Amino acid sequence: MKPARSMSATLCAALTTLSTLAVGGLSSAPASAAPAVVCNKYCDARDPALSTHDRVPATATVSARSIALHFNDADAMGWASIDNGGPNDRVWLDRSMDGGLTWASGSTLGDTSVPAGGRGWRTQMYNVDDWNTQGVGALRACGQPAGGPIACTPWARTTWNAGSRSTAAATALMMSFDRGSKLFGGNGWWTGANALTAIIDNIRITGMNSYAYAMADTYEKNINAQGGQFRNEYLDDTGWWGLAWIAAYDLTGDRRYLDTARTDADHMYANWNSTCGGGVRWSTNGNYKNAITNELFLHLASALHNRIPGDTVYLERAKSEWNWFQRSGMINGDRMINDGLTDSCANNGQPTWTYNQGVILGALTEFYKATGDAGLLTTARGLADASTVRLETGGVLREPGEGDNCTGDGPSFKGAYVRGLGVLNRQLPDRPYAAALTRWANSAYDRNRNPLDQYGPHWAGGNSATGYGCQQSVLDLLNAATR
Q1: Strand 55-62 and strand 138-144: pairing?
Q2: DSSP 49
């Protein structure tokens, strides 16, 4: 839970900070800018002597000087220090509200110099987050020997909202939630739906509801975007959003989320046609039949049936979907699912992306709940047995052709896979995939995490790229591994 604020917004607005100084290429605020004072439990520029404890999560060195970032976790504040230096050495903090991508509004906080005769000094304490504006922040400490080069520590944050691996990862993901567009990454559409779903799942699993505002904010800001009601010409995009709103409905009981999920499912069904004997087409601008769109429709239709008393419509649609899908040829001889069908309605042999192997597992589990047909779980287990073996490299899940960055669509795929695998695993009494999920989670945590609890694309380690797609996927993994 958030600590209570002890100072009013009026008092906070009346305070001033030290003027901002432009420093080399590391601090981008102009010299005339002064960062707004942030007040949470306490206001910015609090004396570190009042801190109840001192944790140092990150350090740096420059010209024999030691620069340290200090945290008072109890009050969610930090300060910077420089030691082993001399007079006129400078030290300051930078504060970022987007995971260290930019910090113009929080540049050179508490900028101060080592006094005459001294060898070291420190700034005042500053808040990491801005709870009044939903700002999920990070700090770094920077220093400069008199007339010398600048060095900064890695970005880090306090332990607020980071009591477990998964809540720390959720907090890092929320740094990518754009407070203007109310979408992850600023404009993430179907990937944003997945990120929101991962946050919702984390709230349900951990009980940490600090980021519950993301549901209503996303809904209200974007309900009329694109085709309205989270629909557009890509039917898989619509399916991802429909499932996100199912998750939001399950958590909140807010009927508008269920109604929108129903509208999304109806939009998908309106694009069911006779090409290749049935199925939902991928786009309204063609007749390509692919796996992910139809897996999502099976899951969404089944979920709606399970939440609408007396429903028969969505159940029949789910039955039609599964009858078509299992005969479509997209499930190959290795029990892996290729991307889609050719113009002649044969398996197109395209890569067996992880998300195609995972969404079907959640879909069949939901369909089982709708029908009581235990054979569906047997089928799902066979598919999961195949994919958990074939998608592992060195004991860790790896996307076919896995890239070295966290941009685009691909970084979100593994998250969808482990989310579906986790759903199936919980349904089966022997929890057959718990060991794999735990192994992958431990590897990512130990080998692929920075001081800000941001993760990269390779759960086996290596490469330092970060971004909300990679972060969403690892949050899905940590969610699945802790269930």
Answers
A1: unpaired
A2: G
The pLDDT of residue 375: 98
Instruction: Look at the chain and count its residues.
Output: 483
Residues 241-273: tens digit of each pLDDT: 999 999 999 999 999 999 999 999 999 999 999
Q: Kindly report the pTM of this predicted structure.
A: 0.93
Closest by Cα among 375, 329, 339, 342 to 359: 339
Q: How far apart, in whole angstroms, are the C-alpha atoms of residue 368 and residue 377?
A: 7
3-class SS of residue 283: strand
Distance CA 39, CA 42 (A): 6
Dist CA 447 CA 461 (whole Å): 5
Tens-place pLDDT, residues 79-99 = 999 999 999 999 999 999 999
Are 13 and 101 spatial neighbours (Cβ–Cβ below 8 Å)?
A: no
Give the DSSP per-residue string, 341-383. Answer: B-TTSSB------HHHHHHHHHHHHHHHHHH--HHHHHHHHHH
Give the C-alpha separation, 176 to 376, whole Å. Answer: 37
Among candidates 397, 394, 420, 363, which has minimal Cα distance to 470? 397
Residue 61 is given by DSSP the state E
> Which residue, chain included where needed, has tokens 């600023």?
186
Q: Nearest Cα to 472, choosing from 169, 78, 135?
A: 169
